[in-house]
Amino acid sequence: KIRRCIALCNRHCTLQIKAGEAVQAFYPKMVHITCIAHGMHRVAEEVRATFSQVDSLVSQTKKIFVKAPSRKQLFKSTAPSVPLPPEPVITRWGTWIDAAIYYCDHFQIVKRVIEILNPDDAAAIASTKKLYSDSEIEGQLAFIKSNFNCLTRGIASVQEKGASLERSLTLIREIESNLKNVGGEVGRRILKKVESVLGKNSGYSAFTML
Prior knowledge:
By secondary structure, the protein is mainly alpha-helical. The protein has helices at 2-24, 36-50, 52-65, 69-78, 94-116, 123-132, 137-158, 165-179, 184-199, 202-208.
C-alpha cells in the first residue's frame, strides 16, 4: 500500500513536469517550479529511512492505540495533560518528523503507559516495550528534533494559503542552510538528498541564479 501511494505521488509529479514543459513551448520565458513542499516531504522521507529504530517505535506505538478505545482511555487517565500518540500520514513524511518530536517531548510519559499494558494482549505491545527500553532511542529522538524540526516548520509555512513565491524560496534556502549544519554521516546523507531534490527542480535552480 505504501509503495503504491508513493508511486502514484511520483507519477503525479512527472505529469506536472511534462505539463510545465508543454506550456513553456508557448511561453518560453515562463519558469516552472514543481511543488516545493513535496520536495521537502521527500527529504523528510529520507530522515525516516535513516532512523529505522525510531520508525519502528512510531509505527508500533500507533498500532497499540489505533482502533483501541480501552487503551486510549487508559492513556488519557494516566497522562491527562498529554495528547494521544500521533498517527502519521503514509505519504506525508513531514508528519512522521512531527511524531518523532512528540515522542521526544513525551517519551517517559508514553513509556510509563506502555509499561502498564499487558504484552499478552497484542504482539505489538511486547515489541514496543523493548523499543522503549533501548538506551539509544531517546538520543535519536532528540537528534531528530534539534536538527529536522526546520523541515516540518518549513513545509507548514510553504503550504499556507496565500504564501508568496518569494517567501517560499526564502524558507527553502533557510532549510537548506540549517541542514548543512547537521554533522556526521546522517547530515551528509540528508544534505545529499536535499541537493538531489532541488537539483531536479529546474525552475528552482533558475530562480536561485537570479
